[in-house]
Amino acid sequence: MTSFTSPLTALTFDLDDTLWDNHGVMVATESGHYDWLDDATARLDIQRERMSERFPLSAYQERRQQVAQREPLRRGDFTWIRQQSLLEMLREYGLRPQDAEDYAAAAMEQFMIFRHQLTPYPEVEAMLDELGQRYALAAITNGNVQITRLPLARHFPIAIAAGELLAPKPDARPFLAALARLGSTPSQAMHVGDSWREDVLPALRLGMRVAWIDKHDEHRGDMPAGVFRLTHIRELPALLTHLK
Ligand SMILES: [Mg+2]
């Protein structure tokens, strides 16, 4: 039984839906890059039917599920799954192999531009400034945000992209990689995240404390020892003060 008495010296953060609201970002990103591709391929004039008529957005989503099932080792690498799905659909739409490759890659560049048009919660910048003076900080994300493309990157010299490691959370490996680079034992560290399955359970299993951002108001009854339920990231500094 972990007693959780060590002083906390390190904090690890999930990103999507922990430091910003990601739903609107993903909706805009999903339609934004696919509309871009639809317009770009229409200009090639190789089919009477537009790409989006042959493959509506729902077909693209289904294709991603098929690709993920076919390639279980890549299941966490969402960028690869998207690009592979686009490539297959572009070939079926009639593009020559090299053109299909080029347009799939260009669509993913558009995807990444939209994906990084995000706004952290207003409290986040000042909070991380403050916490960075007292704790070692790291980011652990399953998402395909490249933290170096965000102004927030300055707070996170250590950032683990779990999807690209092919070991997405709840796998323990991204947590262990972050702790190793922080020079922290699990008992000296707290993980902060919104997903019960991908953030809370794996961190707790390692013996970390967890601040669970219960974004969807799931509650889940009494919290296990070491897990603290918050409703918003802005409540984190008060929790840390209280734990001292
Ligand atoms: Mg999250």
Bound molecules: magnesium ion
Residues in helices, as a percent range: 40-55%
Number of strand elements: 6
Outline:
elongated
What integer is the average pLDDT? 95
State the major sheet: 6 strands, parallel
Radius of gyration: 20 Å
Q: SS-based structural class? A: alpha/beta
Q: Spans with pLDDT under 50 lasting ≥5 residues?
A: none
Look at the structure and give the CATH class of the largest domain: Alpha Beta
User: What fraction of the residues are assigned to beta strands by DSSP?
Assistant: 5-15%
Helical stretch count? 9
Distance from first to last alpha carbon:
21 Å
Order of helices and strands: EHHHHHHEEHEHEEH
CATH architecture identity of the largest domain: 3-Layer(aba) Sandwich
Question: Which sequence of strands runs across the widest sheet?
Answer: 3-2-1-4-5-6
- CATH homologous superfamily assignment of the largest domain: HAD superfamily/HAD-like
CATH topology of the largest domain: Rossmann fold
Q: How many domain units?
A: 2
